[in-house]
Amino acid sequence: MSLRDKLLWAQVPLALALLVVGVVAVGTLGRVGHAGQDILADNYRSVLAMQRIIEHLERLDSAALFIVAGERRRGLELADAHLQPLEVELKVQEDNVTEPGESEATVQLVRAWARYRSTYEAFAAVETPAARHSAYFNELAPAFRDAKAALQVILALNQDAMVRKSDALQRQSRRVNTLMVTAVVVALVGGLLASSSLTQRALRPVSVLSQAVRRLGQGDLATRAVVQGEDEIAQLARDFNAMAEALQRYRRSSLGELLQAQASSQASIDSLPDPVVVFGVEGGVLNVNRAAEEVLRLSLEGGSALGQVAPEVREVVERVRSHVLGGRGPYLPRGYEEAVRVEAAEGDRWLLPRGSPVYGEGGGVVGATVLLQDVTRLRRFDELKNDLVATVAHEFRTPLTSLRMAIHLCAEGVAGPITEKQADLLYAAREDCERLQGIVDDLLDLSRLQSGRVELEVRPVSTEAVLEAALAPHRVAAEERGVRLAMAQEPGLERVEADAERLQLVLSNLVANAVRHTSHGGEVVVRARQEGERVRFEVEDTGEGIAPEHQQRIFEKFYRVPGASTGGAGLGLSIAQEIVQAHGGEMGLSSQPGVGSTFWFTLPRTGGAESAPTFER
Ligand code: ADP
């Protein structure tokens, strides 16, 4: 049965109650109406007949008095006019006998009337006035009184009955009133109770359903609405259950997939031999891998995860973290010298920090991953290489000096005369010796810088003088190549604090490179300007530029761009970078092949009172 039918059925008791009340009302009202009519038909008619008969009788009596008075003709006319209607009324009364005792009274009346009438006829036939007089008083008057008395009896009988019946009617109508009120109340209460209980039964599934919906909304996906039947609510409940089922399945499956994804990502970072720490956007540790737990003794349990880590490691990790979370992109180490030492059971380990941002859906940084690459072996190799280079360079110095001296003496003819051809060969040998000496000097310089054995003489120096000194040695070469040299210095930046000689070396190296790699008609500009707390130097050229794949490695020792035009041994930029870093600065470049390159470096702008940057790292 549909919900509509059920609700319609629920109205049936009320409708039935209304019907019952209606039937009762019609019945009782009909009865009361009948009772009134009965009084009219039964009694009022008799009363009317009696009154009319009395009227006629009195008229007949008047007619008799007329006759007694000698007005015989008028008397007889009057009597004739009333005789007939009286008899008619009498007939009516005979046909309308309704009360107990009325029948006998009517018989009495008919008899009395018959006597009066015969007496009247006898009276009318009397000839003499005296006899008429006596006949009237002696016979007719008593008959008149008898007839009137009989009439009065019937009249009283009917009037009494009317009073009685009217009383009864009044009582009955009071009863009917009570009955009607009772019927209405009973029908209304019964109908309402039945209707509301039926409506409640029809709508109970709605509350079951709404409870289920509420529980589902609170997250209880196992909830179901138990509703029997075939109506619309049962259908709705079935649809609801199907929806809850689908939701539960979805929740189960998505949770499962999520857990699996999390487990596999945890397994993959655990499989890395190097420690990995994942930070949230607020900087808190979100996750670590097993290597991090073992090597750094870092654990997620307890308050601050980084608290247990050795201070120097913590400092490095925090630096990388703030670099990445600060939105400055991935953090790449500049070299092995950034590696931090960690004590371990099997000997010291060197860890090189790298950082990469974790991007959120909107593209913003929502976290950072810090990986500490174990570079112990690589660092040893690097140290070994540096040592070897330093030793070789050192060992080369003395023989090279005597070689140069010997070639020089021979070339100058000190050791005896030489032919022109021999002189050419000796000049070529001397040039190569000079280059070799330069490389050996550079290598020694570099190894001294790297090992921290160089003390910087930091003092205020004139920016203009430094820039000028950097350009001066290259003016001739630039002029030869048709390259314009220019310098630009920001006003108010008259002095910088640095080791003048080395700063000049750095700039000079950069200018030399720029001139070497710029073709005819190009330009090389050297600039110095303020940048926050630092001074920024730039050497910009309009030369051939450097391809992006080489830009990363260009500061490495001995690295030269393959196929590049002549140059040194690939040490110039390494030395420059070492010197800049020794000052506490940074160095980099931006370059576009075919357009030009800009090499830049910054130096901290230390005030006079502050100590000079130390060289120890
Ligand atoms: P070198 O002493 O051999 O020049 P550097 O370390 O100074 O070594 O430079 C390394 C390499 O970088 C060079 O071989 C050169 O190819 C490239 N390079 C340096 N400066 C520039 C520049 N301004 N334009 C193009 N290439 C450059």
How would you describe what is shown here?
The protein is built from 14 helices and twelve strands. The protein folds into five domains: 3-194, Up-down Bundle (Four Helix Bundle (Hemerythrin (Met), subunit A)), CATH 1.20.120; 221-271, no CATH class; 272-374, Beta-Lactamase (2-Layer Sandwich); 381-450, Helix Hairpins (Orthogonal Bundle), CATH 1.10.287; 455-604, 2-Layer Sandwich (Heat Shock Protein 90). It has 617 residues and is an alpha+beta fold. Helix 1 (3-68) packs antiparallel against helix 2, helix 4 (129-217) packs parallel to helix 5 and helix 10 packs across helix 12 (500-516). Mean pLDDT is 87; it is low at 607-617. The protein has helices at residues 3-68, 72-95, 102-125, 129-217, 232-270, 290-295, 311-325, 376-411, 420-451, 463-471, 475-481, 500-516, 548-551, 572-582, and strands at 276-280, 285-288, 340-342, 349-359, 365-374, 458-462, 484-489, 495-499, 523-531, 534-541, 586-592, 596-604. The chain has a five-stranded antiparallel sheet with strand order 2-1-5-4-3, with helices on both faces. The protein has a five-stranded mixed sheet with strand order 7-9-10-12-11, with helices on one face. The structure holds adenosine-5'-diphosphate.
